[in-house]
Amino acid sequence: MVANRDGILDDIRRSQGRDGPIDDQRAAELRARMASPTRNLLPARADLPASEVIDLFQSMAESVFATVDRVADMSAVPEVLTDYLKRENLPAQVVMAPDPSLDDAPWSDQPLLEIRRGVPQESDMVSVTSAPAAIAETGTLAMFSGADHPSTLNFLPETHVVVLPVDRISKNYEDVWDLIRQRVDAGEMGPNERMPRTVNLVTGPSRSGDIEQTLLLGAHGPRRLHIILVDTDETA
Amino acid sequence: MSGSTTHQFKENAERQLADEDLRQALTKSKGHFTGGRQNAMDKLPEFDALRDKSRDIKEHVLENLDFYLETYEQNVIDSGGQVHWARTAKDAQDIVLEICRSVGATSVNKGKSMIGEECDINEALEANGIRAVETDLGEYIIQIRNERPSHIIAPAVHLTKAQVEQSFRETHTHLDPDRILEEPPTLLEEARTVLRKKYFEAEVGITGANFLVAETGSSIIVTNEGNGDLSQLLPKVHIVLASIEKVVPTLEDASTFLRVLARSATGQEFSVYTTVSTGPRRAEDPDGPEEYHVILLDNGRTGMLGTEFQDMLRCIRCGACMNHCPVYQSVGGHAYGWVYPGPMGAVLSPSLLGVDEAGHLPNASTFCGRCEEVCPVRIPLPKLMRHWREREFERHLTPRAARTGIRLWAFFAQRPALYRWATGLQMRLMGAMGRRRGRFSSVPLAKGWTKYRDLPAPEGKTFQQQWAAQQKLGRS
Amino acid sequence: MENPRVALFVTCLVDLFRPSVGFATVKLLEDAGCTVEVPRQQTCCGQPAYNTGDKADTKAIARQVIEAFEGYDYVVAPSGSCAGMISQHYPALFADDAAWSTRAQKLAERTHELVSFLTDVRGVDGVGGEFSGAVTYHDSCSGLRELSIHDQPRRLLGSVEGLHLRELPDANVCCGFGGTFCVKYADISDRMVETKIQAVIDTGADTLLAGDLGCLMNMAGKLQREGAGIQVRHVAEVLAGMTDKPAIGEPGKD
What SS3 state is found at C23? Predict the structure, then answer.
């Protein structure tokens, strides 16, 4: 396999009229390009004042069949969640990410709501997670794997409820990459000082158009994606 | 199923043209894709500028491909993953099998991967007693029908729902034969239930990659169903199959492509799931694969670099070219006889299979230019098809009748006086013969034309003859 | 330019099959203040050889065209396909030959398709003619995508008295002609032209127009084979008010 590797790299170099790797100066330029990535063209769509960024996020998410509730603060989340489950005829039984930011909500206010924290099982119908970031441009949620967020929570249960403080909504995908880099540099992404293993950008519930291009929700991932937007001090 | 029937393109096309189900399915899908793309474009004023940017980034990558691949490789290793280099499809098969054996795998889940198709990974697994389960709904449907995908993003686009129903009934024999199954939602429901079980049984999950990010050593997949995610999160081992030109420098660069990919492909602003995977699960992660392998496939691509076909390596596999191609929309993807159909296949297949095998494809185009018009990375597809025709002509692979015909015509075209005399004579004859009806229903030397349409008769004297006569008379 | 000297590149198909389009072109150019000449050494633009991959013959024919058409203010062809060949493809043919490349480039810059030449170069915004009936218009691929010809013919047709234009759905989709494609891949070409004429029939128009004789002959031939009773003409004939000749493929008057 080493032969394969060297053969492929040699062929690439030959096609560029070189017999070896690119010269040191060029390599340094390319490394610099990666070390401080520049943003390419960003659509102007999300270039809005903060409150309108939130509105854009909501309308984009709704346009891809996510549903959205908006509440004043974390204290309202348990009740809104319970109402949502009732409305959708879902059991009051959820598997929730072991994410400390979800601990702020007064879950005990809803005594009938059964909560298990951790990795989902095949039988779990509803998952509840937070999202560390979201992108207004396309109504996209960003979720990072880690001790506090098993990635399977985003895919296995039929219903995924995401609690999203509105101050986590940014404009573009690039904002999320910067957030990840900041957290890695600050040692907040675990001990590895690297990207999380899995970054999921999620835009609406799962769907397929593979049978006669008929749009159907819930192909393998969740049939329903419900977002509870939580206003924060700056926006309240 | 493996092997190419590309050399029989004409026969394949003839058979496909006679397939009424195919015609019905294609008619349904066509407007969906073209209208969707137009709609998405209308909503994003920067779309064309993003296409330029996407083209430029790919060009930059191809010029420095060895550097970015090495950087990517190092970052995969640094994040705990393994990189394998495959010269050929066979190499890729061997590497996959070796990894499967190392964990004693008996079942493999597959997310949709065109490289998987290119390398016939399923056949290799099955031949070695390992069950391969396609989990993308479209791929699953064609797998149980033992077919190839007919489209690079909509593998089962050639089928009607009635055909899918029939296949499900034949395959899911453990279910009640009297169940109601004709509408797409019930079909999807059944596939979801059947496949859900299989997710938990596989030891290995294989996905493709839309992009590889050099900066971070990540692979990115873009899907709508979520199957690619379950396929990589649940099994112990995640294998990524990717060709070498998939690498991009940074996450920012990937973002630019992501902005044009779904819009060009399905008309969505963004696909439902864009997943960035970096290495195996970390010590603190509660789920995710324990091993992460990337197989980097060449399979003929290095041979395209530095040639007139390098532009083709910009392709991001969105399928817009085939969605807009009137030839593809007439014959469907299976006529092309291998993995890559439509205009992108007409350029790529001869590069990967050889022009002897795939020579028909670049010829089966009217050069209408719609593919180039919609390509998100601005690949000049008609120009590249023409390059293949030039190579075929140079190597005397052009069919003899066409070659002789064109050379004979060119002989006259380069001798204007002779040309005027010969054509003048012929047109007068044809004009006289055709005057009464105005057209011919059958012309011995133009059967290809008159098989399906009448040939309008010439008016008689050529323009050149009439003009010369008028000039002589002193036209004022 | 007050009174430009325009060389007419009549195109092989118009020359041989439908000279009346050539005369309609001459009339439209003269009405637009041009002096028209027809270089005698012209045969074809070389596209059949070019699209067959026969580069040597293509270049030989291109050199012949360049020599015959040098020295005029403009070169105009009643075809987007042939005008596109000269203006978009000739320069690339001689990329490795500096002397010919310059000559090809100069010719390319002065070469235009008829209708866009009238509107974009000569500033024509209307023609005097009249035509009674509902017409529909097919955008031929080369003109549309290589030369951006879309609005120009519609604008001029809009100035023809009595003419009612019905837009053709999928007017920008190829009719299946494609030069030698239509005989090499006759079955596929047939499916394409079948789809096209169905759309034409569905408009309810009684006349189909386009700017390229190849596409017109293909669509006319299919319409007639199917007995659709729709007349097919080159757009120049209608714009010049020269519709006294039978439509394409229609019987001559004895």
Answer: helix
Residue B399 phi, psi dihedral angles, 5° rounding? -50, 140
pLDDT at B1: 45
> For chain A, how many structural domains are there in total?
1
* Structural domain for A87, as ranges: 49-208+215-230
> For the purposes of burial, counting CB atoms within 10 Å of the CB of C127, is it exposed (0-12), middle (13-18) or buried (19 or more)?
buried
Closest by Cβ to A204, choosing from B25, B230, B272: B272
Instruction: Please tell me which of the candidates B85, B200, B277 has its beta carbon nearest to residue A1.
Output: B85
Specify if A35 maps to a domain: no
In a domain? residue A38:
no
- Per-residue pLDDT of B419-438, as tens digits, reads 999 999 999 999 999 988 99
Residue type, B186: T
The nearest CA of chain B is from the CA of A149 a distance in Å of 8
Cα–Cα distance measured from residue C40 to residue C63, given in angstroms and rounded to the nearest whole number: 15
**Domains parsed from chain C with CATH numbers:** 5-120 (3.40.50), 125-239 (3.40.50)
Chain A residues inside the 8 Å CB shell of B218: 195, 199
Q: Longest C-alpha distance within chain C, in Å?
A: 55
Identify whether A73 is part of a domain.
yes
- Average pLDDT (B347-365) is 96
What is the pTM for the complete model shown?
Answer: 0.96
* A146–B285 C-beta distance less than 8 A: yes
Give residues with Cβ within 8 angstroms of B463, minimum separation 6. C10, C14, C15, C16, C19, C22, C23, C38
Q: Could you report the per-residue pLDDT of A111-129, keeping only the tens digit for each?
A: 999 999 999 999 999 999 9
Nearest to B226 among A17, A210, A221 (CB): A221
pLDDT for C252 equals 78
Q: How confident is the model at residue B2 (pLDDT cuts 50, 70, 90)?
A: low
CATH code (residue A88):
3.40.50.10420
- Chains C and A lie in contact, requiring 3 or more CB pairs less than 8 Å apart: no
pLDDT in tens, B243-261: 999 999 999 999 999 999 9
Which residues neighbour B164 within 8 Å (Cβ) at sequence distance 6 or greater?
A: A211, B141, B156, B187
Sign of CA dihedral A168, A172, A173, A179: negative
B/e letters for B291-306, b = 16+ CB within 10 Å, e = fewer, are: bbbbbbbbbbbbebbb
Task: In whole angstroms, give the CA distance from residue A195 to residue B49.
Answer: 30
- All structural domains of chain B, each given as residue ranges with its CATH number in brackets, are 20-297 (3.40.50.10420), 401-472 (no CATH)
